[in-house]
Amino acid sequence: MGMIRYLITVLVAILLQWPAYARLDSPDRSRARRAASLDFNTLPAMVLADANETFTRPGNIAALLLAGGASVAMHNTDADKNIDESLRSRAFSDTADKTFDVAGNPWTHLGATGLWYLFSQANDDELNQQRAISMLSALLITDASVFTLKAIRNNDTPNGKDLAWPSGHTASSFCVASVLDEYYGPRVGVPAYIGASLVAWRMMDSGDHWASDVLFGGTLGFIVGHTVADRHKQLEFAGFKVKPMMDLGPRPTTGIALVKRF
Prior knowledge:
262 residues, mainly alpha, Vanadium-containing Chloroperoxidase, domain 1, 3-stranded antiparallel sheet, 11 helices, 73% helix
């Protein structure tokens, strides 16, 4: 169902973008296609570089080890079971439960990111195209990490499903919130974190995950999202990095410089 939801979201994005695309002249359409082709041809290398940066930073490694150790301790003691018993109160109505389940689904986030990219391209918004691509990179790294760890651990959820640790919904939701926080600050980041926290609570309230699954998933998404967005937060224009410029000569001036390494 997740894959079907993602494909439907992308199809809707294409249909919504079509009127703007249809108004473009042929040269503009060709330019848009070339830009998209370049973005997605360079995406694999970008994802690998982002993953390397994420999982080699000493601070990130320490945080993941601490979260991993805490989640193992919680699961091997009564902590997970006690938290599960206290939270399984069905605090969410059926409508809210389904809403947060869909809103926190990694496929939903991938589809929304595709929508963001397509609208940005239709509006010739290069900055948001770059931000959407970096969001995609962060989500792919998060999802690949989650699925790998699930396959290795393969423990059961409170309601008897398999592949519990870590929580993919929580990891993906905190990844999205972290990227938005890096790019737009607390005005967008704080509501996004609140939404991610509600997704995490829903995963425990429904019995789909233990608290330890949510703890590590949230930490993973937070670290990946912040690292990737921070790495790409530098403004670029037509492939050139935009940097401040200052000349302290006889007539001091300030401005910006476009820099590109060949």
